[in-house]
Amino acid sequence: MSYDHLLYDVSEHVATLTINRPETYNSLNFAAIGELIHALKGAGRERDVRAIILTGAGKGFSSGADLNELVESREVDITQSLREGLNTLAITMRGIEKPIICAINGVAAGAGSSVALAADYRVASENASFVFAAFVNIGLVPDGGSTYFLQQLVGPAKALELVLLTDANNRLSAEDALRLGLVNQVVAQDDLLPKANALAQKLAVMPTKAIGLTKRAIYRAAERTIADALDYEAQLQGIAFKTKDHAEGVAAFREKREPVFTGE
Asked: Residue 220 maps to which CATH number?
């Protein structure tokens, strides 16, 4: 696939999407958001893709919304733009039934931090940092899912602190993000993509359908009662039980060998 603001590569069942606007620290204009949505949906449909990496070109992951475009878009219906753009992107990321690993190579600010939090697994370089107050510092409300993801990960009180006080002069470091549970792993800058790719390769040979169904169950459980969660688990298990990967997993266990999953 060819895009103006995004690099897309598939290798060994892993799709790597790189936001490619390094001159603006990968700020997200409407076009870049649209390309991310298109590429992610394509990777979600592509049978050969079984894991996805999302990262940024250059020194930053994403500095957030393109403020120059926002200034020029005063007459745009921002509510509708969010619904069609960042909101759709977040829902797409959570809805794709393949694991998404975010490799955070530098600053993730504003909407850039929202995109990072929408991923299933986050690997941050030691140079990474988060600026959640990028919204309020220009008189805006956190969007793109920040209010939802943050309060789920750290609770309402800490989420409010982060979105009000972690500005450009008081960034949340990668190590502090790890301590709070906002990222899963912190690695050396040079090790970031190799570590993310190694994880993606590991996930890519696992039973893809089961991973997708597990994503469904985990994310839905956060919004449901225990009774709802148990019933939904049972429904999903009925689907997983009929997959070829389940049959292969059982056969490999009985034959005392390593399973060979195909994602079916």
From this structure: 1.10.12.10
Task: Report the 10 Å Cβ neighbour count for 23.
Answer: 9
pLDDT in tens, 133-176: 988 888 888 999 999 999 999 999 999 999 999 988 999 999 99
Cross-strand bridge partners of residue 185: 123
pLDDT tens-digit map of 6-64: 999 999 999 999 999 999 999 999 999 999 999 999 999 999 999 999 999 999 999 99
Helix (H, G, I), strand (E, B) or coil at 258: coil
Q: Which conformational region is residue 117 in: left (phi greater than 0), alpha (psi within -120 to 50 degrees), or beta?
A: alpha
Query: Are the C-beta atoms of residues 98 and 50 closer than 8 Å to each other?
Result: yes
Angstrom distance (rounded) from CA 160 to CA 54: 26
Question: pTM to 2 decimals?
Answer: 0.90
Give the integer Cα–Cα distance in Å for 47 and 68: 38
Report d(CA 166, CA 190) in Å as an integer: 26
Q: Would you say residue 229 lies in a domain?
A: yes
* 191 and 224 both lie in a single domain: no
Do 119 and 212 belong to one domain? Answer: no
Domain match, 55 and 165 both: yes
Range of the domain at 225: 208-254
Element (H, E) at 195: helix 192-204
